[in-house]
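The instructor's notes for this session suggest beginning with a concrete chain rather than abstract definitions. Hand out the sequence below and ask the class to guess, before any prediction is shown, which regions might be ordered.
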Amino acid sequence: MSELQRYLREVSSLLECPDKEKEYYLSIIENELAEEADEISYEELVDRLGSPREWVNAQLDIMGGEAYENKIASLKKKRKVLTLIITAVALLIASVAIYFCTVNEEERGYKGFYGDPITISTEVQKNTKGN
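After discussion, reveal the predicted structure:
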C-alpha cells in the first residue's frame, strides 16, 4: 500500500458523511497528488497537507469555531445515549408484558377466556378413559 493510500484511509476514517461526499473529499487529495503518488512519503504528505486530522478539520471546519471532529464526537455520544434510552424503554416494556402474561395470569387463577373457571365434567372424563 502506498503512503498516499494510507493517508487517504486515515482521512476516510475521520470523515463521517455519506459515501459520495467522502469520495469527493478523497478525490481532492488524489487529484492534487496524482502524478507523484508512488514517490511521495507519508511525512511529505503531512508537510504539504497537514495530518489527516488537520486536513479534515480544515476542509470541514464548523461555524462557530467548533472543529469537525468535535462535532462528530458529540454526535456519536448523542447516538449512544439515544440507543441506551431506547434499549431501556424496550426492556421496560418487555418486563411489563412478561409480568402481565405470567404473574397476572397466576393471580387470576387460570380462568377461562370469559373469566369462568375451567372445569372438566366427570362425563367427559369417563368417556375419554374408554378410548
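Then share the key points. The helical segments are 3-14, 19-32, 42-49, 52-59, 68-107, 122-129. DSSP finds six helices and no strands in the chain.
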